[in-house]
Amino acid sequence: MGHDVTVIRRTPYVTPENRRDEYKGVRLADVYAPRKKSVEAIVHTFLAVLKARRLNPDVLHIHAIGPSLMVPFARLLGMKVVTTNHGPDYDRQKWGRLARTALRLGERFGTKCSNKVIVISNVIAGILRDNYGRSDTELIFNGVNKPVKSSGREYLKEWGIDGAPYIVALGRFVKEKGFHDLIEAYAKAGLPKEWRLVIAGDSDHPDEYSEALKRQAREAGVVLTGFIKGERLNQLMSNASLFVLPSYHEGLPIALLEAMSYDLDVVVSDIPANRIPELDAADFFQAGNVDALATILTRKTLSRGTPRAYNLANYDWDAIAARTVDVYREVCGSK
Predict the structure, then answer these.
(1) Sign of the dihedral through C-alpha 143, 259, 221, 296
(2) Which of 67, 205, 292, 315 is the most exposed place for a label (fewest CB within 10 A)?
């Protein structure tokens, strides 16, 4: 669209394979971050704001409420700031009391001090309106690309699931994703032997929960692929029979949108962020209710609802990009 964009990355995630200065016209700047869960985001964001000041941008765009702690600092340095609130991260079960307090403070700073605030759901817009009196937020959804489904099956053969029906779930191995409930429900459901459960993902920072989850999965015969992307993920999603999102906390889950873009039948926890209008009442179960999840797994696997057709017009990346640029222009004072 003719704009000059720089993305600031965290150095621990820069590898020889992705070390570059530019990607598809977007400039990349790598800034130090300590590889420690409790301080990684805040230290990196502080240094990234200093880096951004040297780049002298028209707009600094900060994502999520943790990094939003640095919004007042960026404003003091004279920058115009847009934040995107991806949801109340303090509700995530991995955080202790101090981290939750910091995240709530980040939400306050981001809401009160940003020139403009983007929210990704009506639920988040309501939180910011009710708690901080900010009613001028811009609702811009997350997006998803319509995939070209893979005809390959080599990756499925590696895991012994080629030709078999399987349930797929995607995400990080943290408690709020609810994968422990999914594994327990899968074992309880007593599905026909050919049905497998495949969970793609891992933990960013291995901990007691993620290790316990892996033990639980092995005992239940669940396939754990680790983090995958590209053709491997395409094969897994193109051939799945059912997608499950059992989470306790979300903003607007891109994993769910991706599953819908593959025309998959879905099972989703009934938290407010997941209740998007493109889904049916029969797709939901009460978050944390293992028996209810086992029941819906049994029903969905019997009906074999894939493929389904969803209207994804609200999640078109081109429209999202255009609306985001409109926000930037408003902040810069131009039409």
Answers:
(1) positive
(2) 205
Q: What is the CA radius of gyration of the chain?
A: 21
The pLDDT, as a whole number, for residue 120 is 94
Contacts of 219 (CB under 8 A, 6+ apart): none
Strand 60-63 to 26-31 pairing: unpaired
Three-point CA angle 84, 85, 88, nearest 5°: 165
Tokens of 140: 């811009």
C-beta separation of 214 from 317 below 8 A: no
Tell me which amino acid residue 198 is.
V
Mean pLDDT per 10-residue section of the chain, whose length is 335 residues: 96 93 96 89 96 97 96 98 92 80 95 97 94 96 94 96 96 95 96 95 90 97 96 97 95 93 97 93 97 97 90 94 96 78
Any idea which residue has 């709020």 for tokens?
176
Give the H or E element holding residue 269: strand 266-269
pTM of the model: 0.82
Q: Which of 253, 287, 286, 280 is nearest to 265 (CA)?
A: 280
26 by Cβ neighbours in 10 Å (0-12 / 13-18 / 19+) ranks as: exposed
CA angle (214 as vertex; 93, 282 as ends), nearest 5: 65
